[in-house]
Design a protein that fits this description.
The chain is an alpha+beta fold.
Length: about 500
Amino acid sequence: MDRLMRRILCAAAAVMLAFPSAASAAPATETRGTGASYTPVPEIIIPDAVPADGASLPSKYTSVGKYISKVKNQGKYNTCSFFSVCAAMEASAVRNKVKIGSAKATTKLDLSESQLAYFFYHKKTDALKGIKGDKATAVPSYINASHWYDVGGNILQNALHLLTWAGPVKESKAKYSKTMGKTLKSSLAYKNDILHVQGFEIKAMNDLTGVKTLIKKYGAVAANYYHSAADEPYFYNYSTGAYFCPYQYDYNHAIAIVGWDDNYSRDNFVIKPSGNGAWIVKNQWGTSWGNNGYQYISYEDIPLLTSAGQTNTAVAFNVAKKNNYTYNYQYDGGTATGEIYAANLGSFTLANTFKAVGGSKEKLKAVGFGVWSEGTKYSIQIYRNSKKGKPFSGKKLLKKAQTGVISNAGFYTVKLKKAIKLKKGYTYTIAVKFSNSQGYPSAMTDITENYGWMKAATKQKAGTSYYYDSDGLEDLAGARYWGALDRVMRRGMTARIKMYTAK
């Protein structure tokens, strides 16, 4: 059985716990719920040849006061993953001076967690109907709950959902205190977004330099750790706001990491880690928690580093102004963390075929795709009017394939060196070849998967999404699992390849 299949079959249960809040001196009485559901994801493949990011980083750094929005309160709902993702998006928009309307984002930016949570579980069809039928269904009974909003979420799956452009929206459009758990208008799914998520970068939490570099680049990262009512007094120092769990528990709470202090004393923790150093964390339990809503978590915190024997990750968001592109051509509207790799073949190609709808002025400006491996080499080629079932049979539109190297795992939008004029009704196949000289490449796909706490589904028609390597071509809509060839390929897969156009 291949390594990804083992992880999926051995998925840990999503743990949803409630615990008392803590002020700087003693626990308060308000009950708050956690909601970071565990989802097994492909291993981040790190070749030896990729140098560490951020050669020179300060021993202490914080984005607070520069890029970080106000501390919020998730209240009684299991919505921590949606809060951590919104916090990371807000920081990224401010850090990178993204325009919202005519003005650059400021620390007053407030994105709606209620909108993100609702449409994660109540997906609407996008404008081009490319993701029709794709969905994420909450399973409250899995955790003995009654409602979808008790199930919680997952940072990476939230990120995949946001790539469809289903938000984010301003808090004023769907106020958390008034709308969380209630039905929202369908128009809030796609017609009120103020930013576009064009990608995200992933780093393993045990890569301190890599995570720090992402914080410097984006202002904050979303991450997970373990927190429970029963264990809190043993792991959390109420007087210093310092938290350290030295035991192997699976994470159950999501937060935003906004800085670090390499010299933060080990003496500040209830149980002393072996060395100094801690992350500066923005939580979402109100300003009465910790140090005005912030806390420290030791670099050595075990659940922050690993869960269910798997390395945990930090996720940073690449957000852009909402009018950067007109159309997002896509088929990957599901939220499963699928993977394709070809360990013994060195390279492979994924391709999606789309039909242009925008008219005579539409231009293909960029291509999006995702990888699980660091140091991945890519090569993009575009074909016009390929025959169905033969994705590479059309006219090549790039005289020379556009190539590059992706440093970190994640999803990326790659701008074409020269825009391509499109013709309405013609088909365009976006083909991306993946390779890695220091190890096998691993690319993101969408799949239908049952995680227990939720069910993710993607629907795909034959003749739209393909996989190719030296052993042949597969239509992913009906592809089989090839264990003998070291392929991870499953029926109903969809390549996570998007086409971005403008008029």
